C-alpha cells in the first residue's frame, strides 16, 4: 500500500459520559416495546464495537445491545439474529435467546442526536468468563466441539432470503478494505517495527491466497469466540455475541478464540485441545491445521489495528503500546520460521 492509497487515520467513537447519557435516554424510550417501564434501571455492561446494557424486565433480566453506527447495517444485524434463532431452534449451541418485542420485532431504533441507533434485546444468561485456572485446555476442547457444530450447521443451513454478513478475508481483515482500520496506525509502532509487520503482511497475503476460500474450509463462522464471549455455568459452555459473525476460514474461529493471549505459553495446548474437540464432531484437514498459526498471526495483526481504531474502549486502553510491541515480537518469530 503506497502513501496515496493509505486510509485516513481512524477517529475513535468516544463513549464519554455525555454519549452514554444519550444512549441511556434513547433506550428508555424503546423499553416499553418489551413491556419494560421507561424508568427501569439500566446498567452498562461492556463497551467494545457496541454498548451493552443490563435491564431488569418484568419476567427477568435482559441484555440490550446498542449497535455501533457505521459498522453493520440493519440487514446485516437482522441476518445475525436470524442465524442465532436457527441455531437455538436446532439446539446447535447454547446461546442467549433474542427477545422479540410485543409486536414480534427483533430490532428497535432511536435517534441519539447524532444518528439512528439500532437495539436488540437478548435473554440474560448465567455464568462467567472461563479463567486460566479452570482447566482452560478442557474448555477449549469443548470450544472446538462447539465450533465444529456451528460450522457443520452452516454447511447445511438454507439461509433466508436477503441474508448478508461481512466477508472476513485478507483484504477485509488487514488489507486495503480492512473493516477495523490500518495496522500501520498501531499505537507506539516505530519504523523498525513497521518494517517487520510489512514483511508479515506480505507473507500472510501470499499464504491466505494459497489457502484459498473453497467451501470445505471457508464459510459462516462466529468470528469472536474468545473468553470474553463465553459463559461457563457448571459444565455448560454458552457462546454469546455473534456481532462479528461472517464468512471466513473455519480455522479463524480458533484464531479468534486466542485473541489477546496469542503469545501465552498455553496456546499450543489450547490449539491441540481445540483440534481434538473439533475432530470429534467434524473433519478438519491437515491443510487447515497447518494454517492455524498463520491465521493466529492474521488475527493478531487485525487486533493491533483494532486497538488503534477503538482506542476509547477499555480493552484498548488496558493494552496500548505493549500490544503492538508484542505483535512485532510474534511477527519476528513467525517470519524466522521460513
Characterization of this structure:
This protein folds into two domains: 17-123, 2-Layer Sandwich (Phosphorylase Kinase, domain 1), CATH 3.30.200.20; 129-336, Aminoglycoside 3'-phosphotransferase, Chain: A, domain 2 (Alpha-Beta Complex). The chain is globular. With 338 residues, it is of the alpha+beta class. It has helices at 17-30, 74-89, 136-156, 170-173, 191-211, 252-257, 267-279, 286-290, 292-309, 314-336; strands spanning 42-47, 51-57, 60-66, 107-111, 116-123, 218-221, 230-233, 236-239, 246-249. 37% of the residues are buried. The strands form three sheets. A five-stranded antiparallel sheet has the order 1-2-3-5-4.
Class of the largest domain, according to the CATH hierarchy? Alpha Beta
Strand-and-helix sequence, N→C?
HEEEHEEHHHEEEEHHHHH
CATH evolutionary superfamily of the largest domain: Aminoglycoside phosphotransferase (APH), C-terminal lobe
Q: Average pLDDT, to the nearest integer?
A: 92
CATH topology of the largest domain: Aminoglycoside 3'-phosphotransferase, Chain: A, domain 2
Helix content: 40-55%
Which stretches are low in confidence, meaning pLDDT under 50 for 5 or more residues running?
Answer: 1-12
Amino acid at each position: 500500500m503506497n502513501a496515496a492509497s493509505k486510509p485516513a487515520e481512524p477517529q475513535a467513537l468516544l463513549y464519554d459520559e455525555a454519549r452514554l447519557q444519550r444512549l441511556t435516554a434513547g433506550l428508555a424510550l424503546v423499553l416499553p416495546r418489551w413491556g419494560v417501564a421507561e424508568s427501569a434501571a439500566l446498567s452498562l455492561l461492556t463497551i467494545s464495537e457496541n454498548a451493552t446494557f443490563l435491564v431488569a424486565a418484568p419476567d427477568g433480566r435482559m441484555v440490550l445491545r446498542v449497535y455501533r453506527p457505521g459498522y453493520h447495517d440493519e440487514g446485516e444485524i437482522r441476518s445475525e439474529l436470524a442465524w442465532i434463532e436457527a441455531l437455538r431452534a436446532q439446539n446447535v449451541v447454547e446461546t442467549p435467546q433474542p427477545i422479540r418485542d410485543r409486536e414480534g420485532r427483533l430490532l428497535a431504533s432511536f435517534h441519539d442526536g447524532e444518528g439512528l441507533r439500532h437495539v436488540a434485546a437478548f435473554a440474560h444468561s448465567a455464568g462467567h468468563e472461563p479463567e486460566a485456572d479452570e482447566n482452560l485446555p478442557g474448555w477449549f476442547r469443548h470450544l472446538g466441539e462447539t465450533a465444529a457444530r456451528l460450522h457443520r450447521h452452516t454447511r447445511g443451513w438454507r439461509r433466508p432470503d436477503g441474508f448478508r454478513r461481512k466477508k472476513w478475508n485478507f483484504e477485509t481483515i488487514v488489507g486495503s478494505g480492512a473493516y477495523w482500520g490500518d495496522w500501520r496506525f498501531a499505537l507506539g509502532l516505530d519504523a523498525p517495527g513497521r518494517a517487520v509487520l510489512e514483511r508479515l503482511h506480505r507473507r500472510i497475503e501470499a499464504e491466505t491466497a494459497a489457502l484459498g476460500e473453497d467451501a470445505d474450509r471457508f464459510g459462516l463462522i462466529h468470528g469472536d469466540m474468545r473468553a470474553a464471549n463465553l459463559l461457563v455455568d457448571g459444565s455448560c459452555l454458552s457462546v454469546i455475541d455473534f456481532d462479528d459473525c461472517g464468512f471466513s476460514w473455519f480455522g479463524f474461529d480458533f484464531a479468534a478464540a486466542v485473541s489477546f493471549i496469542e503469545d501465552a505459553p498455553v496456546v499450543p495446548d489450547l490449539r491441540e485441545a481445540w483440534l481434538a474437540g473439533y475432530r470429534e464432531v467434524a473433519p478438519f484437514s491437515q491443510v487447515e491445521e497447518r494454517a492455524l498459526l498463520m491465521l493466529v498471526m492474521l488475527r493478531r495483526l487485525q487486533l493491533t489495528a483494532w486497538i488503534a481504531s477503538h482506542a476509547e474502549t477499555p480493552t484498548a486502553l488496558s493494552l496500548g503500546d505493549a500490544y503492538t510491541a508484542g505483535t512485532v515480537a510474534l511477527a519476528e518469530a513467525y517470519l524466522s520460521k521460513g
